[in-house]
Amino acid sequence: MRGLFWLLSVLALGGLLLAGTPAQAECTQCVTAYFEGGAGSVDTYKGKAGDGWAGPWVETTWHGTGYDTLTNANPVDSGYYVNFALKCTISNNGSGAISRDYGYDADENPCGIDLTEEHCVDFKIRFDYELDTFTASNDMISVFDAWSSGATPPSAAPYQTWGIGAIGGYLNTDWIVYARDNGAAYWHDTGLPLVEGQVVDCSLAIDPANNTWEVKIDAGNDESVDWDSEIPYDATTNPYGLTSTQKLAFRQEDESVGGFIHFHCRSTPNGDEHAISFDSVEICQPCIPEPSTMVLLFPALAGLVLVRRK
Fold it and tell me: Which of 56, 68, 129, 281 is most buried, with most CB under 10 Å away?
């Protein structure tokens, strides 16, 4: 019976680790967008407030026309997803974004994410336009955090924290991440090329207390097309890794997380258009351990039970 008691205790402890604090007991661990809820629900586009979202998705454009569509024509993951296209309507630099607020507020959004504590952000994104037109420095796609809807991408404003994207002709038109090197903010090349029609799976861990973040970018089934910020630079095996002086840090030191996730397009010249599709947005607190972590965790918990029984 004691062995059973310890087993139940360990499993209960594991459940607490996954379920969060007692104050979050009535809320789910993750704020999600799978776009499968149907008309009038929280989990659709543009949706409404609820389940950790403070409101619906918001589209904002500058010097461009946005075309946002909920569709299942060519799934990013499975089922429905959002496609967002932006057409430039001036001589250069038409821009637009779709954003949504997931920040905690005791009165307005009690099931939101506490932006002062660690949390994880996962999403899948696909570039859905002709790559041969994505060549100018004002051609850009990105996903980033900001303090409000309709913000500009990280390199253009001081108040964003983390950011992932690609810029036409810049750093080989590879996927890039926002980083710092000895205090200076810049875009870091991951070595993963932007590929038309390729689904990219991004997993971020945000650490507000230390103004840092980590990310793993999975651009295919082969490990050779992955990039992990935790694997350090090596001239032979990981030439695009971060060196000892580099890290993924918030754009501004001592900055706070905004809690508005943005999916953004920018295009140039007049009449030029670019598009992205995204799905499976998951923002979790605490973070859900990866399967490899759980494989290590449960044998260790079982070992504690066996030691106690002896």
Answer: 281
Describe the crossing of helices 291-309 and 2-19 by its angle, rounded to 10 degrees. 150
Burial of 234 (0-12, 13-18, 19+ CB in 10 A): exposed
How would DSSP label each residue in 63-84? SEEEEEEEE-SS-SSSS-EEEE
Write the pLDDT tens digit of every residue in 64-105.
999 999 999 999 999 999 999 999 998 778 899 999 999 999
**125 pLDDT above the threshold of 50:** yes
Q: How many residues does the chain have?
A: 310
Which residues on adjacent β-strands are paired with residue 272? none
Do residues 112 and 231 touch, judged by C-beta distance below 8 A? Answer: no
Least confident range from 118-122, 161-165, 176-180, 291-295: namely 291-295
User: If you average pLDDT over every residue of the chain, what do you get?
Assistant: 85
Pairing of strands 81-88, 246-247: unpaired
Domain spans, the chain: 31-287
Question: Cis link prior to 239 (omega < 30° from 0)?
Answer: no
For the chain, the C-alpha Rg in angstroms (whole number) is 21
- In the chain, the percentage of residues whose pLDDT exceeds 70 is 82
Indicate the residue type of 98. I
Q: Residue 175: what residue type?
A: W
138-172 per-residue burial string, b: 16 or more CB within 10 A, e: under 16: bbbbbbbbbbebbbbbbbeeebbbbbbbbbbebee
On the question of pLDDT at 255 being above 60, the answer is yes
Helix (H/G/I), strand (E/B), else coil: 271? coil
- Looking at CATH, the fold of the domain delimited by 31-287 is given as Jelly Rolls (2.60.120)
CA torsion sign for 105, 111, 114, 115 is negative
Token pair for 192: 């993963």
> Is the per-residue pLDDT at 301 higher than 50?
no
